[in-house]
Design a protein that fits this description.
By secondary structure, the protein is an alpha/beta fold. The chain has twelve helices and eight strands. Helix content is about 45%, strand content about 15%.
């Protein structure tokens, strides 16, 4: 099985950068890799790629030297099994509000003795080229489980959720959290920031690395000062749109055409 380079970097507390990917084309992954990102989170929650597309995106991430993760749409045995058998090196679980959700995901994502993932070598096990017993051990060492906390209840239960020993790191979900707090999309609202602070403190208490979705350079600087080193810089669609828009406006203004 491939070494999970993201896991190694996080263990060294090295700064890492990732993007959500919802455009189901390998070229997008290649471009992100050449831009020197460390990981991608292929999105099955808000996007709808089929499993064949997921496998192609995972393969592109491998070739580009990035760790491929998948944000699953739900905690469900077959979906988790398929994305990991495609070669994903971890799952991101949206809307986690109870420890039981992590426990179920772990049961489907890891082999015995950590879980009961259905046995099959497939792509990550090099199609049975090596003994399956060795692959099982390697898979349990390399796979990551990442809960997203994005509600008031999730923050309230965060210490319990993050105390699970197989939680690799935690990702905040300030957008949905803002809606849960009654201030939709106001991610800088004081109530949202207080909730994120509480989540950060719970992560510190549980010795779980905290990941932020950096929404501004100023916000990123503040989290860096607090010692955060895992950053998700939005998604591929928004990043591309903003770049296209900025270039059109810059050149239009320079030519006096806008």
């Amino acid at each position: 099985m491939r070494t999970n380079t993201l896991k190694e970097k996080i263990e060294r507390k090295q700064s890492v950068f990732g993007l959500f990917v919802s455009i189901p084309h390998p070229v997008i992954i290649e471009m992100i890799g050449h831009a020197e990102y460390d990981f991608v989170i292929i999105d099955l929650e808000h996007a709808a790629p089929n499993m064949e597309s997921v496998e192609e995106l995972v393969r592109a991430a491998e070739l580009a030297g990035m760790t491929p993760l998948v944000r699953i749409s739900k905690v469900e045995r077959v979906e988790i099994l398929k994305v990991l058998d495609c070669g994903a090196q971890g799952i991101v679980i949206p809307h986690v509000e109870q420890r039981e959700q992590v426990e179920e995901a772990v049961r489907h994502a890891y082999y015995h003795p950590l879980g009961m993932r259905s046995l099959n070598s497939g792509r990550p096990g090099v199609f049975g080229k090596y003994p399956l017993t060795g692959y099982i051990q390697e898979a349990n060492e390399q796979v990551m489980v990442v809960p997203m906390i994005e509600s008031v209840e999730g923050v309230r239960q965060s210490a319990s959720i993050l105390s699970h020993p197989q939680v690799s790191w935690v990702l905040e979900g300030a957008a949905d959290l803002s809606q849960s707090l009654g201030v939709p999309w106001q991610t800088e609202h004081p109530d949202v920031q207080r909730a994120l602070g509480a989540l950060y403190e719970a992560a510190k208490q549980c010795q779980v690395p905290y990941a932020t979705v950096a929404r501004s350079q100023e916000g990123m600087a503040l989290w860096a000062e607090r010692g955060v080193y895992i950053y998700v810089l939005g998604d591929d669609q928004n990043t591309a749109f903003r770049a296209y828009e900025q270039k059109r406006n810059d050149y239009g203004n320079a030519g006096g055409l806008i």
